[in-house]
Every structure is written in C-alpha cells, then in structure tokens.
Amino acid sequence: MHSDDLVEDDTMAEQRKPPRDRRRAPGGRVVTLLLLLLAAFLCAVALGRFGGLERGQISSALIALTPYVTAGGGVLLLLALSLRRWLTALVVAMVTAVLAVSVVPRVLADEPSGVQGRSLNVLSANVYFGEADADRLVRLVRRNDVDVLSMPELNSGMVGELREAGLFDTLPYSVLAPEANGDGSGIVSRYPLRELSLASNTTMQQPSARIDLPGERDVQYVAAHPVVPVGGDTTAGWKREITSLPAPATDRSQPARILAGDFNATLDHAPLRKLLGRGYSDAAEVTGDGLTPTWPELGRPWAPPVTLDHVLVSGGTAVRDYRTFKVDGTDHRAVLAKLVVPS
C-alpha cells in the first residue's frame, strides 16, 4: 500500500469522527425555564412600580416589596451568569439596575442642612384600634421631648388610657377624632392648636391643625391615615386620599406644612411618589433610613417588613434625626423625626 493511500485513509477516518459537542450551558431546559420565569417576575414588578399599576391588594403588596425584589434581582443576575444564560443575565442586569437607582438613595443620607430655626420633634404612632401600650407611648413622648404626636386608629378608650398615663399633662393641646374600628385619629401638642380641615372627606379620620409655634412662623400639620388598598374600590380611594393631601409649603412666607402618620404606602407606590414629587421630603429618606421598616410588628410573621409610616416635611423644614421605636400592643413601629422649622 502506498503512503498516499495511508494519508487518504487517515483523512477519511478523521472526517468520519462524530463532531465534538458544543459546550452546553449547565442545567438544561428546566433551569432555563426557571430563570426565565424569575426574570419575568422581576420585570413585572418593575413594570408595576414604574407604571403605577396598583390595581388591588396583590399588586399593591408586590410593589411594596420592590427593595426585596431589587436584592433578588442581584442574586438572579449572579445565578444567570454562573449558568451562562447570557441573554437572561443581560435583561436581569438592566431591570435590576433601574430598580436599584430608585431604591439605593434611601440609604444615602443627605448633606446636613445649615437651617436655623425652631426645633420641632414629631412622633407618629399607629395605636392599633386603641390597643397600644399607653404608658410606653407616654414614656417615649417624655424621653424624646416630643412636641407633636399623631395617633392613627385612636378610639375613646385609648384617649382615657392616655389621660391616666399623663399624656395631656405633657402635651396639653389636642385635636381628637376618636372612633371605633380603627377609623379614628388625633393630634396632641406642646403648643396651642387651631383645628383645620386640610384632609376632609376621607374613609378614616385625618385631623389637621395649625400649630402656634413661638416665633414668627407656624406649622400646618396633618395626621395622615389613608385607607388600606385591599380591593378595587379601596385602592381607588387610597390613591385619591394620598394624592389629595394638602400641597407642600413652597416658600417661607407660608406656614411650614408637615404630614405625619400611617400612609399605608411605601416610597415605591405611585400615589406617595406623586405627593413627594410636589415638593415634600420624606424624613427617613433624608437621613438615610428610608428602608427602615415600620410594619408589621405583630400578628403577621409571614409578611416581609415594609415602611408604611412616614413624616413628610416641606417649606424648608430640615430633618436632624429619624428613629423608630417598638410600642407594645400595636403592629406598627412609632416613628420620630427631629425637625428644624426655619423662621
């Protein structure tokens, strides 16, 4: 046999060898499908968040979980990269980045303001159908030199307990609207109050008052408590009640305006974002505490903690400090904002 024949036989043998398999992504089609489903969920929450698609209890709850979904997007991105699903990883990276841009600023404190003026310490505590520990609440007021207190879900029984605990000795002025079934509310203050009607025609009481501060400038104050979005009808009312809250003060010639209470909304919900876009600042976000949860504190171990209680300020009001406190008997943490109202 000639050498040329040997070469030809070797060449034909090489051609007859089965082609080498391309390197496949690990996990196969099942893993690909699971990643696609998770990516679709991420995209749906982002669409709901930025599209303002709160339509009922489920969609509103999912949008409230945006910070958790954002963190989950980061984990999903690493998983997609490790499994070499490049297109899925690209989509997840873009959506997660957009969500992160809206979430991360909440943990970044603003530069300290040099505003000079009258200090005003504001505390809001949802008293949970009047079941909150009155003695604990009064101790919080005294230890933190609270000047104004909001109390969503106030009832007449709770008013009596607070009176016995000495609240009205410390904060002698009040605008109270106690009701049963969590519909009541109230404002108590160290300074004289004049009742206003800044948030009327709402499902639950949202009392408001003008606080007569020492000095030239007063404060208009609303104890906010929009209805809970548990269905189509209440969701529409929830949106209306948040967006119809009074506009912020735009300059120092007007009384400063403060909204404090249980908004039943996070900073990811469109109605609250719309209200903030009109000129309010969220006290927790200003101090870098915007992801500090305020609900739930009891009774719902399955519910991820979210931030439903807020202090919104306007009219040049500066935020010096922000903290939250546990109050026995209620499912919300109390929120404290130490403010400076410029003259």
Automatic annotation (TrEMBL):
Residues 1-24 are annotated as: Disordered. Residues 1-12 have a biased composition (Acidic residues). SUPFAM superfamilies: DNase I-like (SSF56219). Residues 123-332 form the Endonuclease/exonuclease/phosphatase domain. Pfam families: Exo_endo_phos (PF03372). The chain crosses the membrane at residues 30-52, 58-79, 86-108. It comes from the Bacteria. Keywords: Endonuclease, Exonuclease, Hydrolase, Membrane, Nuclease, Transmembrane, Transmembrane helix. GO terms for molecular function: endonuclease activity; exonuclease activity. This is Endonuclease/exonuclease/phosphatase (EEP) superfamily protein YafD. It comes from Actinopolyspora biskrensis.
